[in-house]
Amino acid sequence: MKSSTVIFKVTLLFIYLFYSSSFCLAMPTFKSVEQTQNKKIFISDNPIFTNKNLSVKEISKLLDFYTDVFSSESQLAKWYSAVYDSSALLYIPIQYAYDTQNQELINKLQKLFTYNTLLIVKKNSQADDLAKRTFYFTVSEYLRRNGIKGSAENTKMYNFIKREVLYYWNNNPANIWESESNKFYGVRQRIDYILSGDFNGNLSYYRAITDFELYVMGTGVSLLLIEKDAKQTVTPDLVSIKDRFYQVLKKEVRIKDNKAWYLQPNIWRDHPDFKDVALEKSQNVNWDASHFSRMSAYLHLLKLNFQDDKPKYSYLEKLTTLLSNQLITNIASYDSSNSIYIFNNYIDGNNSNFRSDIKDGKKGIQPSKNFEHIFVGWWKMLNTNEVDIMYERIAKQFPYYSEQSAYIAHDKGFFQEIVNLK
Known about the structure:
Strand content: under 5%
Structural class: mainly alpha
Helix content: 40-55%
Order of helices and strands: HHHHHHHHHHHHHEEHHHEEHHHHH
Radius of gyration: 21 Å
Number of helices: 21
Strand order of the largest sheet: 1-2
Shape: globular
Largest sheet: 2 strands, antiparallel
Number of strands: 4
């Protein structure tokens, strides 16, 4: 892989991440799983990816590249943004590798993700705090899929990530903005204050739940599944994270017309990134589609955690169904006349500019240009037939989409493989 290509790819991924009909007709249907006699079938037994015969040549090459990047502190210093970008790009390959038991990919993941890798990332002073939180999430997911039982190396990695997450949860200064009304120590404090509904400052987004909290909670629920799989005594703080995450999705979500749901609608109305959002009457300012794509993974993990709690599981399943519906109706607009999707910038179908800087006259991401998240593939974790159909259609017209995005074009082999995974 040419270094110039990698530099370009990493730069554009930062741009992506940091910017980071009737309901009955659009209702997603979930892929079936054959029941085995006398065995309770959990979600974890229902793989999202089942096709073992797909090309993963470019995915394999990217794993080799990251193995080299994370091999030493000096190497990572050259490519420190890899802490962030690998977390996004490798999430779906991890799921595919273990769902299909692709030994080539599994071997390379085991070589890439080691205890030493975690130490190198922690010591790196160039990668910011959010980058490290995202990395811990993806490595935790690797450990969940690989398992830690009987492996001293993986157990050390699990303990390392758990220490980091519990420090974030209980102790780390947790204010996102300096002008919030209160000082918070630990994500738990900030989440609990938000859930209380109390005043936290004059601007709407001072009580917003952000990636800083979501990645910590997502990693916590992943770690809890690791403990259950290894038949360890569960850590009370991880149970607390799981329960708080559910409460966030219960108290801070608004379901609209049983067709869609929104996390903290209008919470971003005062934020500069959203100042260029044009609203029609009664519309709210909602999340952009790229950041919200991660919710597909969080819902999957929460359903795994609550599979024995029927009311909570059913609610999470409803959110999954509605989010799939939003993806194929609000975000991805299909034109059957030319078999092409146009992607809207926001999860409610709004297609205004995103991350404009009104003060400096910068227009940010233009309408229908905030779509690279589709090709990173986290939406596949919704695991519905409708999402599968969307990706099958995209795969047939992949050259068109690669021409619309320099980011996709510069690594089109990799993104073609991600789109093809099923």
